[in-house]
Amino acid sequence: MATTKKPVHQKELFGHPTGLYILFMTEMWERFSYYGMRGILVLYLTAQTRGDNPGLGWLDGEALSLYGWYTMLVYVASIPGGIIADKIIGQKRAVMIGGFLLVAGHGILSIELMWAFYSGLGLIIAGVGMLKPNISTLVGGLYRQGDERRDKGFSIFYIGINTGAALAALVVAWVADMWGWHAGFGLAAIGMVLGQVIYLSGQKYLVTVGNKPKEKEVNSEDVSIKDIFMQQFSTRIPLTITMLLALVSSVIAWNFIEDQRLAYIIFFIFLSVVVGMMVTIYQDLHSQVEKDRYLVLLLSFIIVIVFWGAFEQAGGLMNLYAENRTDRFLFGYQIPAAAFQFFNPFYIIVFAVPVANFWMWWKHRGKEASSLFKMANGVIIMGLGFVFMVFASMQYETLGKSALYWLALAYLFHTIGELCASPVALSFITKLAPVRYGALMMGVYFAATGLGNKVAGLIGESASEAGELNIFAGITIFCVAFGLLVITILKPLKRLTHGAEEDEQAITN
Fold it and tell me: Which of 220, 228, 346, 389 is deepest in the core (most CB within 10 A)?
């Protein structure tokens, strides 16, 4: 009697499609390369041009400014990356192209020339933009609709992300400390090469997912960015708002900003177009329920900006603080400053399940556990983490060095806040976004995350004048006050959602 073998792409490993582990390893090495490079970027920029490990000798403010632009563009690039995949080449090929761009970008960074530095950053931005938004789509595509293994599959994938980030914080930081910054950049490139080799060799397990999209159906209700632009610039109110904001912000930038004037003008015009787009969408909504939910959706974007604007001090200002203000000796060995980036992914691996279980227990007790409540508390908890940086700054002013445990405690609170806010934010947006604009709202979410990263850079830049203690205290006060404000108006906000989360719960029960 003949037996029928499963096709390769349907084979399973440990109860999940084998393709999941291909994507797990690909993303692990991609995050290894990204976070490894991110961890040493600001330190390389500010290192003295002479010495054992020479850098570029930039001022802290200059380095943090570049850091803000870079991390913002990484997220904003996810928008065209997702569009190219969805409309033209498919997610699978987009991830492959993104991988090649990242290999080239990290490899070029290992060359000790300025043209290579800027070219490498540009290639990394483009590579992450192609890879990051599309690899998660591939993970989801491995499971049929309604497959109960899907959530666990994403949890496994999430472990890969944080494993790569944790390894990078330790290994790349150590290599950069021992053999120089460009050796660290080179190691990040090697990590990406490994990820790309694994991805290419595992294509047979990804045959059915992420392929080139078919032609859209004529009656499709999906709305493209092009459609929104056409409507935005042909409708009086959105056009007026866009043009007025662009004009006013450009004039302000021209008269009051000296450094990077052109970059900021382009940035403000981009923000003006986004605001006009949001107004256009609001006007196009037909029902009051959609309009109310859309207003809450816009608030959630503001929460995202506030959260990442504070949280992303990790790779910038707090990284410099670890380098210049912290006593990093432990058992006679000086820990590289970039190695402190290990705390966040390590804490995520340790506390992800306990935090999720806490919210489940909290909800079963009949307590408030809506997405907005979790996000607001995430902002508050993350903000309270900067209290430890205030203590660190006070200790530095007294003793000339601060203890490393202040950073460990700060990152602990930041991570708990992230686990409260970040996982639910994207899910909450999918619940509230109008169906016709669902894909577009994902792009706006990435733009909001990118804007938060730019805000983080601006805050870090101001530390050179305001002082770290004042900056850390200001972040704490603002985040706590903002989170409490959201909680204060939670009831009317929930009414505006018109039971979006309750409807989903009814469906899943």
Answer: 389
What is the longest distance spanned by two Cα atoms in the chain? 83
Q: Are 67 and 43 in contact (CB under 8 A)?
A: no
User: Would you state the pLDDT for residue 456?
Assistant: 92
- Rounded to whole angstroms, how far apart are CA atoms 29 and 24? 9
Q: How far apart are CA 77 and CA 122, in angstroms?
A: 10
Site of tokens 């169906």: 435
- Name the domain count of the chain: 3
The confidence band for 433, taking pLDDT boundaries of 50, 70 and 90, is: confident
Tokens found for residue 412: 């602990």
Please tell me the total number of residues recorded for the chain in this structure.
509
**494 within domain boundaries:** yes
The Cα–Cα gap between 245 and 271 comes to 9
Distance CA 174, CA 251 (A): 46
The mean pLDDT of 77-95, rounded to a whole number, is 88
Q: Where are the alpha helices (DSSP H) in 224-287?
A: 225-232, 236-256, 261-284
Residues 296 and 429 sit within 8 Å (Cβ to Cβ): no
Residues 6+ apart with CB under 8 A from 308: 449, 452, 453, 455, 456
CB 95 within 8 A of CB 199: yes
Same domain, 251 and 127: no
CB 358 within 8 A of CB 195: no
Q: Which residues contact 501 (CB under 8 A, 6 or more apart)?
A: 370, 371, 428, 431
End residue of a domain, out of 211, 233, 261: 211
Integer CA distances (angstroms), 265 to 118, 140, 149, 233, 269, in order: 21, 39, 47, 20, 6
Q: Does residue 269 share a domain with residue 346? A: no
- Please choose, from the candidates 304, 320, 389, the residue with its C-alpha nearest in 3D space to the C-alpha of residue 67: 320
Single out the residue in 211, 243, 270 at which a domain terminates: 211
Range of the domain at 248: 222-284
- CA atoms of 134 and 491, how far apart (whole Å): 36
DSSP 8-class letter at 90: -
pTM: 0.88
Contact indicator for 386, 472 with CB cutoff of 8 Å: yes
Q: Percent of the chain scored above 70 by pLDDT?
A: 93
